[in-house]
Design goal:
The structure is a homodimer of 313-residue chains. In chain A, the strands form four sheets. Chain A has a five-stranded antiparallel β-sheet, with helices on both faces. A four-stranded parallel β-sheet of chain A has the order 2-1-6-7, covered by helices on one side. Chain A is of the alpha+beta class. In chain A, helix 1 packs across helix 8. Chain A has three domains: 108 residues, 3-Layer(aba) Sandwich (Rossmann fold); 137 residues, D-amino Acid Aminotransferase, Chain A, domain 1; 64 residues, 2-Layer Sandwich (Dna Ligase, domain 1). Helix content of chain A is 28%, strand content 30%. Chains A and B meet through strand 3, strand 4, helix 2, helix 3 and helix 4 of A and strand 3, strand 4, helix 2, helix 3 and helix 4 of B. Chains A, B: It holds the Pfam family ATPgraspMvdD. Chains A, B: It comes from Streptomyces broussonetiae. Chains A, B: This is ATP-grasp ribosomal peptide maturase.
């Protein structure tokens, strides 16, 4: 029974998990859907009332029924590397690959449908609230008046991207750090593109909590006074293991159950009173940097889940 | 309580339903997500543990909690018509619009997650089989050898697109009719793009069965001998109402329940013995042409579902 890892070639986080899987002797097939067709071939056949499928990468062939799990780590667009790439070839190749995989009995980390829903920020905030987290007031608007009223009400607000930084453009990847603004900002540009504004939480630490199946790994990094976004640049502090309060652990379990996520990376701001405020839950968040600094055994947990699930089967 | 219709401006099928909704006095808001932001504004705010959202189109504003239903008819890409359109603006605008709509209590025709899965052909064939339909053997492959062996085994096979015709290119829309081929065809090109091959079913009629909630509308069009694809060109025959066999009705209900579809358009080939063979189920299939020829009241049924659901609530 093989673990299928869908990701691009350069992915250190995936490398860490692959090393663990090799160490335990679990067969692994790694594929970037962008290399389909070309470096890989696939066939899916419907006959006798069932779907039979084979996937071959670098001469190794795996039957779709022999897939133990699928890790949607950071897959490229299907057929993106093809000699005659086109939106249509991408659509056809997606049909072939995911049509086949959706017919396999494999576990998913994460299932594409759960992942798609879990990416939506407004949806996240509502589920976070219903899971018992403290959630800062947030507005997402194309109306300058709404943005200004929100900033006037809360005085200090941060503006951030809902979908992450722009990718895939011609230039270098843009960094888009969360930025603090006040009610005197110019909100006219909001009409040209939706802005996500959130009440600023003065914090004494950033928290990254990684959920893998039923296991939780929390890390804490002290924040400088008035620090807004600790993701970019060196703050002089490192990620250190921390024990999540029991109330937070219960909320995390509630959230991932509602969202149907086998893997999730939660970001919290720890305020001056010690409250953990839910900022976001990234279903595809990196964990390599946290593991390297904190020593938390996240890649081993991911490898374990891909091999055995939560051990319940 | 308002019905939200997400579709492009030119959509005769939507026009038919809008006319029905107007006739019954049901408030309607029609929006092409491509016109966001610009012709429409939206705000979604998280406060006090709930999501509040407003959507304004042409000066009419609807609260997200006052949405009765959302019809995903043929929506454009979010922000595609924006002055500074970009993949990132599309991603942010999708976040804002669908994040808001996923927080509303509205019924969906169809829910995006069900729609996404239901588009996958290999998945369709398996679900069709488990729902009791007769399904022709099919292969979907990037391996020329597999394609040739399939054609040799079944002698007469059709090749078709899995994802529909190419769209959105610079030239006119390409037509891609299903084509009959034999085992002597050249299968080398299969390595460059996956090919979907299916055993040819000699047929005496095409069947289009439209499922709207719990209501079924079947139409039949006589086929010329040796006709392959009756969708393009004039065959001299019209769509006429027909009663679906009870076994087919039961299978349709099973399929749409498994797939979670409020709307679905099934295509069958009626063979020389009268068996209906499942060819595909298009969760977003047109129905205007069938209604106009056959007189089947499909648009009224869609309007009814958008207004009242299946009447069960």
């Amino acid at each position: 029974m093989t673990v299928l890892i869908l990701t691009s070639d350069e992915d250190v986080t995936a490398d860490m998990v692959v090393a663990r899987l090799y160490a335990t002797g679990t067969p692994v097939l790694r594929l970037d859907p962008a290399d389909l067709p070309g470096k890989a071939t696939l066939s899916v056949e419907y006959r006798d009332g069932d779907v039979h499928g084979d996937l071959s990468v670098h001469g190794r062939t795996v039957c779709v029924h022999a897939l133990r799990s699928v890790w949607m780590r950071r897959p490229g667009e299907p057929a993106a590397h093809a000699a005659h790439a086109s939106p249509w070839l991408t659509a056809e190749t997606r049909q072939a690959l995911f049509g086949m995989l959706h017919s396999s009995p494999a576990r998913w980390m994460n299932h594409p449908h759960s992942a798609e829903q879990a990416r939506l920020k407004p949806w996240q905030l509502r589920v976070a609230h219903h899971s018992g987290f403290a959630v800062p007031p947030t507005v997402f608007t194309t109306a300058p008046r709404m943005a200004r009223e929100f900033a006037e009400q809360h005085r200090e607000v941060v503006v951030k991207a809902a979908s992450g930084p722009p990718r895939g453009g011609p230039g270098p990847e843009l960094m888009l750090p969360t930025t603090l603004i006040g009610p005197d900002a110019d909100f006219a540009a909001v009409a040209a593109g939706p802005a996500l504004l959130q009440r600023y939480i003065p914090k004494r630490a950033d928290i990254r909590l990684t959920s893998v199946g039923t296991r939780l790994f929390a890390a804490r990094k002290t924040a400088e006074p008035h620090q807004i976004d600790g993701r970019y640049g060196d703050t002089g502090h490192l990620w250190e293991p921390v024990t999540a309060p029991e109330r937070i652990q219960a909320s995390v379990r509630e959230y991932v159950t509602r969202a149907g996520l086998a893997y999730a990376a939660f970001d919290f701001a720890e305020d001056l009173d010690g409250t953990w405020w839910f900022l976001e839950c990234n279903q595809g968040g990196q964990f390599g940097f946290v593991e390297l600094e904190s020593g938390l055994p996240i890649s081993a947990a991911v490898a374990g889940w891909l091999t055995d699930g939560d051990g319940a089967e």
